[in-house]
Amino acid sequence: MEKPPPTPLDLLPLTHSWPFFESGQRFDLGTLRDDAGPATNVVLDPDHFERRGIGVWQCDLADNGLRWSPTVYDLFGLPRGAGLLRPEIVALYCEPSRAAMERLRAHAIRHRRGFTIDVEILPARRRSRWMRLVAAPICEGGRTVRLHGLKRDVTHEYR
After folding, report:
1. What does the alpha-carbon distance between residue 135 and residue 153 come to, in Å, rounded to a whole number?
2. Could you give the CA distance from residue 8 to residue 96 in angstroms, rounded to a whole number?
């Protein structure tokens, strides 16, 4: 039997995503390690990315609290400023996108690594969409305490 062609969700090796380049611009999202002392993490300026149609997000690992810029709310079809519960948001990811994203997220947290993955989501009250998810760790005391990054609609690349 012939093997089916690979899909965008065929997970690349976990080291596939750094550095991340898009349209000739490198997104420096933060430090990978903070062994030399306090992290010198880059603070993402939401306005800079919002003007380019790219959303900014952050997840606090202590309580899974999410913070999103307006573009991310729009991408998920949720009212801007709505309360965000990570389990409800993760449920909007289509399988196998959810499994792939969770695997990369766990690796990123454990090994203080960033990742990039295209995932399919089913936004509230809308057709499915493809989203490019870029994540980088924020570390304190040698451990990952938050993830942050960018989310961008890339549905046009899959049609």
Report:
1. 15
2. 10
DSSP string, 21-88: EETTEE-----S--TTSS--PPPP-HHHHHTTTEEEEEEETTTTEEEE-HHHHHHTT--TT----HHH
At 141-158, the pLDDT tens digits run 889 999 999 999 999 998
d(CA 58, CA 48): 16
**Alpha-carbon distance 92 to 95, whole Å?**
9
| 103-138 confidence digits (pLDDT tens) | 999 999 998 888 999 999 999 888 999 999 999 999
Whether 110 contacts 102, CB under 8 Å:
no
Report pTM.
0.75
State the Cα–Cα distance between residues 101 and 128, nearest whole angstrom.
16
C-alpha span between 72 and 87 (Å, rounded): 16
